[in-house]
Structure formats: C-alpha cells, structure tokens
C-alpha cells in the first residue's frame, strides 16, 4: 500500500472511531484516549492528523454533508427527496454520521468548534438543487428556495432526533415520508406531485441499487 | 408566608436555577453544587425536593409542556398555531425552558431520566387538540392526527435547534411562520386557510395581551 493511501485509511479509521465515541459519550465526556483505543492507532498517528479534540470534532462535523450523496436525478425535487431518505438510512447505521449529528445538535461543543456548520452546509447544498428545480419549472411560483430549504433542514434535524428518542431511528423512513406528504403540495407544481416517490423505503431501495452497481463494477474489473 | 407556599417557591427557585445550569453546561457537566450556588438555597432544601441529579433533571423535563399554555381559541387549529408561537417566544428568554429543551435534545441523560418524555407529552397534548379540530370540521379528510402532530413536534424541535445555532433563536418566530405556511395547506380546510394568523410576531402579541390581562386583574383586586 502506498504511503499516501495508508495515511488516508488511518485518518478514516480515526474519524470513524471518533464518530462512534462522540455519539456514545458526547463532546464533553469524550477523551482522546477513548478514540485511540477504539481506532487502534498510535497516539503519534492520531496527533499527526488531528492535533486536538476540537480539530477531531470539527473533522467529524465536516464529514456530515457528503453522506447525503445520491445518484443525480433528472427531476431535482426527486433528487432532494432521495437525499433525505438516503441520508436518513445511513444515519440509522453509520457511527461516524451518528457522531457528527450528535455534535451538531448538542450544545456542548466549545467555541472553537463550529457545530452549526452542518446546518449552513446543508442549506447551501440543497438551495443549489432547489434553484435548479426552480429553473426546470418544478416549483410553485410562491416558493422562496432558501426559506423552504432551511425549513427542510431544520425539520429533518428534529425528526431524526424524535425518531431516535422514541424508536432508535427505526421509524425514520416513515417520518420522512410524512414530512414530504405535508410539505410537497406547497413546493411542487401539481403536475409533478403525484409522480414523486416519497415511500418510506425509498432510501433502502436507492442504497441497494448503489450496492448492486458497485458489485457489477467490481466484477467487470480485470 | 405559609409553610407550604414557601416550599413551592423554594422548589421553583431550584428548578429555575437547575434549568439555567443544565442549559449552560448540559447534563453530564452539571453538578448539584452549581445548582445550589445559582439557586441560593441550602443543600438540605435541595435534597428535600430533589434527592438526586437524575430527579432534578426529570423535574426540569416535566416542566416543559406547561410552557405551551395559551388562551383557548374557538378555532382549535389556531390554538395549536398559537401554542407553537407562544412556546417559541418563551423559549427565547426562559432559562428553565431552555434547560428543559437542552435535556430533551441532548443524548447525554442517563437511563434513569426519560429525556424523550417531552416528545410523547407534546404529541399526546396536541393530538387531543387536533382531534377537536377534526370534530369541528377544520381538517382535510386526509389528515391522520397523530402523524401530523408528531411531524409538527419533531419539526419544531429541529427548527428551534437550527434557529438557536444560527441566530441564538432570534429568528424563531419567522421560522415557525415558514413552517405553518408550508404545512397548513395539507392540514386545514381551504375555507379556514386564509383566516389563520401565522405571522412571526403572533407569540409576542399573545404574551403582551396576557400580561395586560394580568395587570388589569391585579388592579381590580381589593
């Protein structure tokens, strides 16, 4: 393995361990030694990548938005819907993402850590998509993209929190489906409404498809 | 002051101090001594009312839903809307409520403290109101009261969180107004829609009215 590739893997292993520990213990109670033990890396390797607990928390926070990655869809509203379901699905099982979300919603992070960053990053990212949807004629003329997007981002944050508190996030897909059923009629043009897929298992189906594609790609390799 | 009244005041002073300390430090980092210092009561008085940090946290959590109290309204959907704005407004300035909300959204509370209680209590409380609205013919036939209510409760939790992270809750009224503009068309019968007051300052206006009423009552006392 090349030196650079090894460094990338080590960094990732540390981030994943840190996410899991932050999720279980919160920012204040997490110590570097807990992360070291979980990641099974040397102290030197950890400090090489992350000089402090703050920088580790910031890196975990910065990993959040990429978890919303989904295949592009010709209908940009569907792509936004897909993002919510895929992200929700990943949140059910990925400890790095769970830790990142806990750091976002907890008020415990010190001033040096921008725990509100993911709110802003999510909003900026989805506003771009919703403006594309607007250009394609998918939106009602009353929609103000930034307002709608900040509502969706805020609502998502609370819905996953409530789902976590009541069912360990088991019913998150269903709750997202209810969200979309309530807000889409105020966002999408009527002709589009009935054609958007907002079923609770949307996220699971997209992820299964992505995995199949990956297997096919691997088999095609020489 | 009668003995019982003094006990009630002491209990309240402890709860308010605890709320403020929990809001600032979170559950894990809060100590009984911090609360003692803030409340300016004796250790004996505190332990008389709350035998442990867990019981103190539980009592702070149990205080949450009463902060949504609003004057009854003939239109039950308006009463639910009012509740959200008044509660949001109180959340901007009341340390006990702020602490209670932090305990609800933080994952840090130990198994002995039911931090998901407020989610359930809110849902049960608002479902009752929404079922009254249903009986009065205020709702579209497609509405499933519990689903709609859990969406509203979850969304509120996240919206206040995002508002707190980005503006110290300064824009919470505006964000609630955006929420209602998006979901009411999927909830209310068309004839009611245009008549509901969902302006960002709705909470401030109701609270001002309540204060005026209280002043009038006090002046009328012999």
From TrEMBL, chains A, B:
Residues 8-68 form the HTH tetR-type domain. Gene3D superfamilies: Tetracycline Repressor, domain 2. Residues 31-50 bind DNA. InterPro entries: ArpA-like, CprB_TetR_C, DNA-bd_HTH_TetR-type_CS, Homeodomain-like_sf, HTH-type_TetR-like_transc_reg, HTH_TetR, Tet_transcr_reg_TetR-rel_C_sf. Keywords: DNA-binding, Transcription, Transcription regulation. It comes from the Bacteria. GO terms for molecular function: DNA-binding transcription factor activity; transcription cis-regulatory region binding. NCBIfam families: ScbR_bind_reg (NF041196). This is TetR/AcrR family transcriptional regulator.
């Amino acid at each position: 393995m090349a030196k650079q590739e090894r460094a990338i893997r080590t960094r990732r292993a540390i981030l994943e361990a840190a996410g899991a520990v932050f999720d279980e213990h919160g920012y204040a109670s997490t110590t570097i030694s807990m992360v070291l033990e979980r990641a099974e890396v040397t102290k030197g390797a950890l400090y090489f990548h992350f000089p402090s607990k703050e920088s580790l928390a910031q890196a975990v926070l910065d990993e959040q938005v990429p978890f919303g990655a989904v295949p592009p869809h010709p209908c940009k509203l569907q792509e936004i819907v897909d993002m919510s379901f895929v992200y929700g699905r990943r949140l059910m099982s990925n400890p790095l993402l769970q830790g990142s979300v806990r750091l976002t919603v907890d008020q415990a992070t010190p001033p040096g850590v921008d725990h509100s960053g993911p709110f802003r990053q999510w909003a900026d990212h989805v506003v771009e998509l919703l403006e594309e949807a607007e250009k394609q004629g998918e939106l009602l003329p009353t929609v103000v993209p930034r307002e709608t997007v900040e509502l969706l981002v805020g609502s998502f944050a609370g819905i996953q929190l409530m789902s976590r508190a009541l069912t360990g996030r088991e019913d998150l897909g269903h709750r997202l489906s209810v969200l979309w059923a309530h807000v889409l009629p105020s966002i999408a043009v009527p002709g589009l409404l009935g054609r958007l897929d907002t079923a609770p298992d949307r996220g699971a189906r997209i992820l299964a498809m992505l995995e199949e594609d990956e297997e096919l790609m691997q088999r095609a390799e020489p």
